[in-house]
Amino acid sequence: MPDKTGGQADGRRGLASLHNLIGALRRIAGMPDYLAYTEHLRLCHPQLPIPSERQFFDDFVRTRYGDGPTRCC
Prior knowledge:
By secondary structure, the chain is mainly α.
C-alpha cells in the first residue's frame, strides 16, 4: 500500500519545481515574479504595503514602457 505522505511530498516538490520554472521563464521574458517580490517585501520591508498582483504588473508595465513605445519602428 503506497504511503500517502510521500505522495503529498512529491506533489509539493512538483509544485515548487513548477513555480521555479515559471519564475525562470518570466525572468527570461523580462517579466517580474510577483511571489518573489511579495516575499522580499515581507522579509526586507515589512512596513511597506503589499500591492495586489494587478497593481504590481501595472506598475511594472508603466515603469518599463512609460507613456509610449520604446522603439522608433
